[in-house]
Known about the structure:
By secondary structure, the protein is α/β, with parallel strands linked by helices. The chain has helices spanning 3-8, 23-26, 39-44, 62-75, 87-90, 100-115, 131-137, 144-160, 173-178, 198-222, 245-254, 265-270, 275-281, 292-296, 344-356, 385-403, 446-457; strands at residues 16-20, 80-84, 119-123, 166-171, 181-183, 193-195, 228-233, 238-240, 302-306, 311-315, 322-324, 364-369, 408-414, 433-436, 441-444. It has a single domain, classed as Glycosidases (TIM Barrel). Helix content is 38%, strand content 15%. The strands form four sheets. It has an eight-stranded parallel beta barrel, surrounded by four helices. It has a three-stranded mixed sheet with strand order 8-10-11.
Amino acid sequence: MTEIEALVNQFPDRFLWGAATAAYQIEGATAIDGRKPSVWDTFSGTPGRVLNGDTGEPACDHYHRYRDDIKLLADLGMKHYRFSISWCRVVPDGRGAVNEAGLDFYSRLVECLLEYGITPHATLFHWDSPQALEDLYGSWRSREIAKDFADYVAVTVQRLGDRITNWITINEIPCFTHMGYGVRQVPPHAPGTIVQTPREVWQTSHHALLAHGMACQAIRSASPVPCSVSLVDNFAVSVPLMETPEHVSAAKAAFPFCGQNGGILYPALTGAYHPEFLQQLGENAPEIRSGDLEIIHQPIDRLGFNIYSGVYVRSIDHDPGYEILPVPPTYPRMHMPWLQVVPDSLYWGVRHISETLNLPDLPILITENGCAADDQLQAGEVLDSDRIFYLRQYLKAAQRATQEGYPLQGYFVWSLMDNFEWAWGYDRRFGIVYVDYPTQQRIPKASARYYSECVRQNRVV
């Protein structure tokens, strides 16, 4: 590669490179040192809910092996690590007594990261809410959860905030609300609660937004040092079928109506539900009390963007002016039904925040990007060229966003290692490190070497 070609693929000098995980997916140790059940323990322990009857025990046994895992992270050249803190380790009943053993685990984890020169980025909620609150008042169906969450956040930040200065309130509100509550049918995600109307589902995401807003306030009040506060969303991305003016305009017009964007991303970042989106919800719109939107719309220092796929949009000559296109059956995808390969979704997600929402100064981190592949361990190695292909294309889209001046500041690959993939159990592998579950051996895949080289050279390799 020539010097000019290398520069074309280069990222900015202070670009953050890292890897991401989540507590329930890797920690195991679900019933020791004072931890009590989360809704995912209950959900995965219910027959028929998770593939092969898998549960989060022992997962990757990270609770006991975290030092080796952090050393592996350092060996791969990572300087940033996004992990989540389990609410039911720190405050096992969701409210009330604090579990010192739980806080001590995360304190030791953070100390180990700092010993290796790795910056911690802590997510305060990644789907594992305490089962005790589900039993008490129905988890996210109740406004009470926002205050309980903020109280847990305050305790955690008070105790760890001298060493953690990058905080994320909540991960992917659409998933644990709109996939966790099913209208007259069992949903595919914990808490797995059946409700009677779509309005009840929208009420859960509204309560999650309140929890985010109150958590932002709690972090800033409790942190002993200046810190960064973020929200992570997996907002849906409308990608123009062709980058011509009419199709770009159509993709921007479609953006508020993709997924739950108008009712989750918009209130969090703009202080209001998108008006036309709210009008479309009609009687299904949630109750929004006086003062709610002011609580929800807290200033954030960064937006975390989890991106895996997207939808193509084209311009049409009648209302609404755009059409979201179906995915052809032959379109390439990775080892999940929903994981179509749409690299431009990363670029357009970043661009939509800057242009469609008119927030050009809001810094963005790619807090998750990666793919499931049908990884096979052969002769002691995993040659996952399909994952390398996927990562290379998405990293090119990230590099394009930085080159065009959009405020993309970093990238975290999902995931550091294979883990408990929610309702898919241990059947689907997202890691750049292979986990042999019977022995808990960690084996870096070819993609780990590839990603490590991108980090080392600060460019798309």
